[in-house]
Structure formats: structure tokens, C-alpha cells
Amino acid sequence: xxxxxxxxxxxxxxxxxxxxxxxxxxxxxxxxxxxxxxxxxxxxxxxxxxxxxxxxxxxxxxxxxxxxxxxxxxxxxxxxxxxxxxxxxxxxxxxxxxxxxxxxxxxxxxxxxxxxxxxxxxxxx
Length: 125
Hints:
The chain is mainly beta. It has a single domain (18-124), classed as Jelly Rolls. It is 10% helix and 56% strand. It has one helix at residues 2-14, and strands at residues 24-31, 35-36, 40-41, 48-69, 78-94, 104-115, 118-124. Strands 1, 2, 3, 4, 5, 6 and 7 form a 7-stranded antiparallel β-sheet that branches. It is globular. The termini are far apart.
């Protein structure tokens, strides 16, 4: 009887697994030129960085380099990922999952071009 109760409890616990969507945090948004963002607090644990660039017409490009840092500074960080975006009116891509933990993250954008090009960078965890 105790064995059946234990099995029933284990099976019941498996039916209530908490499934939720990833949490998304802005790293830098509204990027319209080549720039370096401010450093922002980064969540610990596995995470993925996602970037997009949107243009009002024609082709647009933007290169996004993402850095981790142990201090609240947007210089001298460690390169975590580079995302090269290129498309017609919109382009997006993501880095492979990053497991390195840094207290802060910042973004450097280069090669921003296109009519009304506006980029955004997010971290998902």
C-alpha cells in the first residue's frame, strides 16, 4: 500500500510541472547609429541574446557585438557574441546560449545603415 501511495505521489508531482515563457530583458533599444550602450545588470544562468534591426524601406544592416563585464562599465569587457544583421526592411538573429555569468552586459553597434534603421538587443533567460 505504501509503495502504491509513493508511486501515485511521484506521478502526481510530474503532472504539475511549471512551464513558462522565457523572460525578456532589454539591453539596448532604439539604436539608430553606431554606438556603445550603457552597461546593464545581466541575469545569471544560461541566456540567449537576440537582436533585430528594422528599416522603414529598403535594405538595412547592423552589426551587434555583446560584451560581458564584472564592473558597471561599458569598456574593457569580454566579447560574448557577435550578431551580423542584414535584410530587406527587417533582420533578426540570436547568439547561441551563453552560460558565462557576468554582472553586467553592454552592446557595441557598428555598420548601421538603411532608411530609418533602428536596432534592438534583448537577453532572454
